[in-house]
Structure formats: C-alpha cells, structure tokens
Design brief:
Maltoporin, Chain A; five-stranded mixed beta sheet; elongated; 2 domains; mainly beta; 971 residues
Length: 971
C-alpha cells in the first residue's frame, strides 16, 4: 500500500495549491441524480457516484460502454464467452461464466435491470444522463447490485415542439446519426421520438478473402409518452427497440506458442492469430476416429504460422464473425402524489432479447488437406472433402476448422412499487417491493470438422468410394470406432460364423467384415442430430427474485444525517441444463435417443433457493455549506447458481456475501471553481465467483477476496477559460480462502518448465520406445527435445514431460484433448497408460495438483488508473471554440486468479482530442475529434480456452485510432 499513500499525498498536495487561485467567475454546476429515487445533488449523497449529463457525454466522447469505461477509472466492460458480458466497478465485478450466473454489476435503464450484453451493444443515445453508482445498492435498487449500478436515464418528452439532430462522420467510413423530436399532443399528453443509427466498416481484415470484419450496422428507436392524468398523477410509457446486424467480434483473437503436445505452450503467451496445434486438442483423436487423418499425431495447421499476421487488424479466417441481436424493452411508470409529503411510484417493465453470433473459434485458417485415414494405404483415394452442415450454415469442408455459436432467447418482466416521503420534519424514508422474473434459453455450441463428420457416414467420401453406400444410415462414435480401429484387423471376422467373405479379409475395409462387427456389437444404423456435432450446452434458466427494501433518513441535526437501509431478498434459480461433447460425453442421452436420430433434451435439473437480509448504515456531516464528509457500511448478497458442466448431477456454487466500508468527502471550494470528491473504500467479499474453464465446461469457484481503494474526481477552473478534470482510482486487492482446491486446467501438473521428450529410441509407427512398452524418457528442454510423442501408432495417446518448481519431473498425457498429469514415477506412468482413456469413458486417474492462490491479486484490478483532461475555451467574436485534450491511463492487471505471467494484461495509455465550435447566435455546432491519437492497441481482457481446445488464450483488444467531424442542430 506504499503507492497508495504516495499517490494520496501527491493528489491532495496538488489540490491544496489550487486553492490559492484567485476569484474566478466560472462556477461548477452540481449534477442532479435520482440515485435515491428522488432528485438530489451528487454533493448531498453519502455514496460514491459519477454521473454524466448529455453534454458531459458529448464532451467526453461517450457513445457506449466502451467509451464509458475509459472515463470512469476502475470500470471495465467487455464481451464475454457466448452471449455474455463482463463488468467491473472499482475493480470488483462479475467473473463467473454460465447462463445461471447473476451479475454483480447491474446495468439498468430508467432504474430497471437490462441484460448486460444488450447494454454493451445498444450504446447511449438521447439520454438525460448516465449514473455510475459504486458499491452495494440493494437497499434502493430492485436487482441486488453487489458491486454497483450503471443506470441510463432516457430523456423525457418536453412541453414544446422541438428537437435536435447530431451527425458524426469518421474514419473507417463511420456514420453515426442521432435525432429526437418532441411532439406535444394537447395539454395532457407529451411525446418524444428518438432514433439512432451507427454504421462503420470493419477494424480488421480477413486476409484470406479480403473481407473486412468487426464492423457495425445497428439502429435504435425509442418512443416516450407522458400522460398528465391530473396535477398529482403522471403516467410515463417508454418503448425501446435495438437491432444490430453485423460481423463484430465477440472475442478478438487467439494467442499461442504452438506446441505439438499441449496445442499451445501453457507457460508462454505467444503472438496473436496463432491457432493451437490440433495434435494437442480434441481435433487430434476425433480427426482420426472420423477418418479424416491417418494418425492423430498430424499437425493439420502446419502451414498456418507462415501466414498468421502478428497484428490485431489482420487475420486469416475460414469465416468472418456473424452477430445479430434484437432487443426490446418497455417500461410503464406511474407517479402519484398521495399528498404533499408522500409520493407513490409504480413501475412495470418487460424486455425481450434475441441474440445470435458465430465465430471462427480457432481464429485461424489452414490450407493443409485432410488426407483421410486410408490416405497412406496406396488405394489412390483423394483427400477428404464434404458438404458439412453446421449449426447455422452449410459449407464445403476440406481442411480443419472449428466454429462457435451462441443462440439466446430471453424475456423478463419486473414490477416495483415504491413509497417516497418528503416530510418537513427530521425523518424521511423510501420503502418498496420489487419482483424480477426472467426466462433465458441459452444455446452455446462449438462444432469441429471431425465431430461434424461423425454425425453421419453418408457425408464421408469413403461411404461411396469404398463401401458403395452400404453404410449410409450409420453414424456416431461406436460406428466410427469400429470402422477406423478395425482397419488394422478385426479378429472376430476370422471366426467361421462371420462367413467366408468376412474371413477372406478380416478388416473393416471389407464391407462384410464391418457389417459382421457392427452386428456383433449391437450397433444399429442411426445418425446424430446436428447439435451433437461438437460441444453443446443447452441451458434453460428461470431466475425469480422478490425483494422488500428501503432506506430511512434521519436528520440528527441541521448538519448531520443518518441513513439506515435494509433489504430482504428471496432468490430462486431453476436450471435445466444438458451439456454434451458430441457422443463422447453425453450422459443424459439414452440408446433410444440416439436411435431416434432427433435431438432430445434430457436435462439435469436443479432449483437453487437463497434468501438473505442485508443492510446499510451511513452518516454524513456538513463541515460547511459546500463541504461534507460521510462514512457508510453496506452489505449485499448475490444469488448462487449451477455450473454449466457435463454430468447428470447438479454442480451448484454458493452465493456471494459482500460488505463495503466507505469513508468519503464531497466539496466545492474557491467560490465554486473547484469540485473535489474522494473516498476510501474497503470491500470484503466472501465466496466471490471466479470461473475456471475445465475440460468441457466452466466451473465457478467461490473465493474470498478483499479489494481496498482510494478514488476521487476533481474539477477545477484554473481561469475563466481553462478547466482541469481529473478522475483516479488506486486499488489494492488480494484473494483469500477458497471453498475447494483450484488447479490450472492448462497446467494440471503445475510445472514450471517444459522438458519435452528425448526421442532416442523412438521408432515412428511402433508402440512405446526402444522396443519397450513404455514411453521415451524426458528431454532437457533444449533443442534436442521434442514437444511430445505419440505412445501408440495411431497417436491416440501422446505424452511429454515437465519439471515442477521443486524439481519433481512430471509426466503428462493427452487423449482427445483431455490432459492428465502426475509425478513421473514408473508406477504412475503404468497407471496412466492403463487407466487413462477418455474415448472409453476413463478419465485421468490422478487428481490435478492444486495451486495456492492465497494472497494473489484479484484479476482485472489495476493498481492505478486515472483520466486527466484539460479543457480550454477560446472566445471569438461570433462564438466559442472549445478544445479538450485527455490522457487516460490504466495500470497492469492480472488476467486470472493464478496470476501467471502469460495472462498479465499490459498497461493502457491513450490520448484523445476534440474541438467544438458553438456560435453566440445560433442553435448549431460543428466539431472534430480524434481518439487514441497514438494508434496504440492493447489486450483488453482474456477468455481462457480449455485443454480440449489446445489451451489458447483468447484476447479482446482495444480500438485503433479513429477521428472524424461532428455537427448538429437544435430546432
């Protein structure tokens, strides 16, 4: 915490110098917010909040959450795995993965919760302001905000006819248009209609096709009506619709140092756009079983590194992403004054979301052909190609590829009733009841070329070329295993009962032998449904929450106020989930389901119910007319849920319990020329949720964490025309106790270095090493070592060695992408060779080595982040030209709970500049802007893959330099 104190001293020393400024006519306008359900100045509230008016957002170039996170230190917002989004405020946020995960940060529109990923896409248009409330807000907000609230308040209809338009033209052929129109409809009805559209060419290019991607094409419309029923009653109706149809990224690209055993070296980050070696992923053995390659130890991406660009703006992809979303949100709010001192607020909202995206999941392209399992048999067979039917499209496949799909339908409804007092005496209150009901159907799939082929043999060229269509009705794992592993011989076909034709050539290449072997095993003709052409997570989640909440305000004296808040919430998550990895792991499927050939949903069901009573206490004291100090302590609970893993037994995780102590001050000095708000906060969260991608699912762990910090914002007029804006956040965080041991799934042996394999004695195509039925010995990590070797001729199992930090050598084996590790003793090696066979349902016989994360830094929390802006007005004869230069900084962050160097996120540094001219006599403006002047792009966040995908690190990245002109007019 030494840097904490140094930074605090420097900040306050600088502010003290500012107080020596002479009298300045400019005065800072206090921002009015509705954080407590009624209009109050930020300066009068005992909570940490940042609010941006429509003018502030234009000044700061805030169009969406991407922009907002650059302005609010410690706030982060990014797209997540599948259809999700990841948010953090003060470095504290939502780190769980799964459709049943409840967000710690609530994104809201007009006070009611809106899907976090939807808010990320919609952006901000025709809003009165955006409020960022920090820390627990559950005593006033219906959805139990554990880490904070991002609330969009839309502009309401005005009394008179009028409106405006704004137009933005920029680089990458960017065009953003926003307009709003007020239309009074008599004395009792007011209306406002707003529209926005945003189109932009892609930031990136697919060098394989020349097609741009990561573009934008979206629009939003909003209709607002205010019905003045009487002098005491107003009914507000708001309807929002957003539609996006573009090819934006969900996650940017993969980082990898190729390693034939692991797929990607688990100890190095590598460069962008490198695909994991398929020999280290599910593609290895599935490619062999599907008859696409003659051995699993074949790198079908061998040509890729030569063409992979090392820049974010380029990529080689099979297909560019697809992204489609339609979101609608309707709110009905009734405000009724029961008396001069009591107001009743009743609100109902209904929202729907239809979301789809497709990504090239391996983030690469290869021109290497698929030789086929008989490609080396001298039969003159051509390389494999076929028309493959994936989840949302069909295409000719002639090389390795992997696609990701997210398909989500959501609808939710919320109801709230609030009673607000405005007594003349010392006591007032806000009390209410809230109910939330959401149904979410989440489909997440990763489909590969090989598992796609295994759905049906009729797609395979060998079906006609070798077997004349005799086995066209077959598909699935048992059939393909019999076919491929029987090519080297089927002993049963030598039995007399097999018949003379089968006896003649006892191999599955002989149709008679294959037919006999299938019948003998009871394998009947069936084909797999489309969804089982890869990993499939089919999750139906219903989330219901009921809360009673409120705050009591008591004026102890004219200058001292006490706030007491309480919340009772009752949460219930009903999760019906079925997850499969093709036919390899699909425990909820029955033989009858397979025989039907039609997708059957047989879910694992669980109901997780939580209830809790939480509270808030705050006291504030006015030191002077414009100077206040406060202290508060607030608690909150985030509901538990169920992990999206493969299995017929539910895997629930516990609720999060949070307590935040905060000491703050809010001040306006120097006759209104300086605003200073600052706060110290101490956040302790028990059972904070963190995701770990393990094999074919996300396992969410409950880990205790402490996050303490010092934050503030300063606005100071240095003279009549020069203003300084400074926002900062300093954080110290630490992980603590964990509910169950955690391990690094990409490094289950917890090795510190990779030794590789010493190839001495290895004979290609022969089992074992040097004539022994045992693997070769470890290498020395040098140039003479190999990444790994196959143990058997087919490459069904591969192996390598590593060294732990304590000097213990570790043997690691992979099969079908599953990774197994143990100390390299003869007994362990034998146990692993005889007991590890994922294709037969035998998982690793050794538990992974736990990693001690106690004392590690919470991922995603930079120690220091700040935003510094200089604003200068240049008065002219006919108007005012305003210029703004901003520097934004975010320190290094850890990328995961293991705090490994591979996952560290670099510091971010950005310069932005804008100019705007407003005439003295006129209702128009014109301006120009430039963001990210240095054109620096940084890794914004990580999404780890599993060993089944080869262990890549999937990274999002920041935008390149953009600039343009803006103009608009009021009318």
């Amino acid at each position: 915490m030494e840097s904490f104190y140094k930074f605090s001293f420097k900040t306050f020393a600088s502010i003290t110098l500012l107080f020596s400024l002479g009298a300045i006519a400019q005065e800072i306008e206090e921002v009015i917010v509705t954080a407590t359900k009624k209009e109050e100045s930020i300066q009068d509230l005992a909570i940490s909040v940042e609010a941006f008016s429509a003018e502030d957002m234009q000044t700061n170039m805030i169009n969406d959450l991407d922009d907002l996170q650059e302005v609010v230190p410690g706030m982060s917002a990014s797209k997540g795995i599948g259809s999700g989004g990841a948010y953090a405020i003060r470095g504290t946020g939502s780190y769980g993965v799964g459709a049943a995960v409840v967000g710690a940060v609530v994104t809201a529109m007009n006070g009611h919760s809106v899907n976090t990923s939807t808010v990320f896409d919609i952006g901000f248009y025709d809003v009165e302001r955006v409020e960022v409330l920090k820390g627990p807000q559950g005593t006033l907000y219906g959805r139990n905000a554990v880490s904070g609230v991002i609330n969009l308040i839309t502009a309401r209809p005005a009394e008179e006819f009028g409106g405006y338009f704004d137009y933005d033209l920029g680089t990458y052929n960017s065009k953003r248009f926003t307009t709003a129109l007020n239309v009074p409809m008599g004395d009792k009805v007011r209306s406002r209609f707003a529209y926005t559209s945003f189109d932009r060419d892609g930031f990136s290019e697919n060098l394989r096709t020349g097609q741009k991607f990561d573009d934008r094409s979206a629009y939003g419309i909003r209709a607002s009506f205010d019905f003045l029923i009487s002098g005491d009653t107003v009914l507000e109706f708001t309807y929002d619709r957003y539609k996006g149809d573009d090819n934006r990224n969900n996650i940017g690209t993969s980082f990898c140092v190729k390693n034939l055993f692991f797929g990607c070296d688990p100890l190095q980050r590598g460069t962008p756009n490198i695909t994991a070696a398929p020999t280290g992923s599910t593609a290895a053995l599935s490619g062999l079983v599907a008859g696409l390659v003659p051995t699993a130890w074949l790198d079908t991406y061998s040509s890729q590194p030569a063409t992979a660009p090392d820049q974010f703006k380029y990529a080689y992809l099979n297909k560019v992403p697809e992204h489609h979303q339609i979101a609608e949100f309707t709110t009905l709010k009734l405000d009724h004054a029961l008396s001069d001192t009591l107001t009743l607020n009743v609100k109902y909202s209904y929202g729907t979301r239809d979301y789809f995206h497709m990504n090239d999941n391996d983030y690469g392209y290869t021109s290497d052909p698929l030789p086929g399992v008989l490609g080396n048999a001298g039969m003159g067979l051509p390389p494999i190609s076929w028309e493959a039917e994936f989840y949302s499209f069909s295409e000719i496949v002639d090389s390795s590829r992997t696609y990701e799909f997210a398909d989500v339908d959501t609808f939710d409804q919320q109801a709230e009733i609030t009673l607000i007092s405005n007594f003349d005496g010392p006591m007032n209150f806000v009390i209410g009841a809230y109910q939330f009901d959401q149904r979410n159907h989440n489909n997440y799939l990763i489909q590969t070329a090989a598992l796609n082929m295994m759905k049906s043999f009729r797609s395979h060229p060998y079906s006609q070329l070798v077997f004349g269509g005799q086995f066209d009705g077959y598909g699935g794992l048992p059939f393909y295993q019999t076919l491929v592993f029987g090519l080297s011989g089927i002993d049963a076909c030598q039995l007399p009962m097999a018949g003379p034709v089968a006896n003649a050539v006892p191999s599955s290449a002989n149709p008679a032998c294959l037919a006999f072997a299938l019948a003998a095993q009871g394998i009947t003709p069936y084909e797999l449904p489309n969804r089982l052409g890869g990993y499939s997570n089919d999750d139906h989640v219903r989330t219901k929450s009921t809360a009673l909440l409120g705050e009591l305000y008591y004026d102890i004296s004219e200058d001292t106020k006490l706030t007491l808040g309480i919340r009772y919430n009752d949460d219930k998550v009903t999760d019906n989930i079925m997850t499969c990895l093709g036919q390899i792991q699909c425990p909820n499927y029955t033989a009858a389901d397979y025989a039907s050939g039609v997708y059957q949903f047989n879910p694992t069901s669980v109901v997780i119910a939580d209830s809790a009573t939480k509270f808030k206490v705050a006291i504030q004291h006015n030191l002077a007319d414009n100077s206040m100090v406060y202290a508060s302590y607030a608690t909150a609970q985030k509901a538990g849920g169920n992990n999206p893993v493969i299995g017929s037994t539910p895997d629930p995780y516990a609720p999060e319990e949070t307590g935040v102590f905060e000491i703050g001050t809010k001040n306006i000095f120097a006759n209104g020329a300086i605003l200073l708000n600052a706060a110290l906060f101490f956040n302790k969260t028990d059972k904070m949720l963190f995701s770990n991608i393990e094999d074919a699912g996300s396992v969410n762990y409950n880990i205790d964490a402490e996050i303490n910090g010092f934050e503030g914002n300063l606005i100071a007029y240095l003279n009549e025309n020069l203003r300084l804006d400074f926002n900062w956040l300093l954080v110290d965080s630490e992980l603590g106790d964990i509910g169950k041991p955690i391990f690094n799934p990409l490094n289950p042996g917890n090795i510190a270095s990779v030794l590789g394999v010493n190839p001495l004695g290895y004979t290609p195509g022969v089992q074992g090493c040097g004539g022994a039925v045992a693997p070769c010995g470890p290498g020395n990590g040098g140039a003479g070592s190999l990444d790994g070797l196959p143990f058997d001729p087919a490459g069904a199992i591969s192996y390598t060695y590593g060294l732990r930090a304590d000097g213990v050598p570790v043997i690691m084996m992979k099969s079908f992408g599953f990774l197994c590790a143990a100390p390299a003793t003869p007994t362990n090696i034998l146990t692993m060779l005889t007991g590890f066979n994922p294709l037969a349902g035998a998982s690793c016989p050794f538990a992974p080595t736990p990693v001690d994360i106690d004392g590690n830094t919470v991922p995603g929390t930079p120690e220091l982040s700040y935003s510094l802006s200089l604003n200068r007005d240049f008065p002219m004869e006919d108007g005012v030209l305003t210029a703004r230069l901003t520097y934004r900084y975010q320190g290094e962050r850890e990328g995961n709970v293991f705090n490994e160097a591979r996952a560290q996120l670099p510091e971010h540094k950005f310069f932005d500049f804008s100019m705007k001219y407003n005439p003295n006599a006129g209702n128009w403006y014109v301006g120009l802007y430039a963001k990210n002047l240095a054109d620096d792009q940084y890794i914004g966040g990580w999404a780890a893959s599993s060993p089944l995908q080869g262990g890549s690190y999937f990274g999002t990245y920041t935008d390149p330099r953009t600039y343009g002109v803006t103009f608009g007019r009021d009318f």
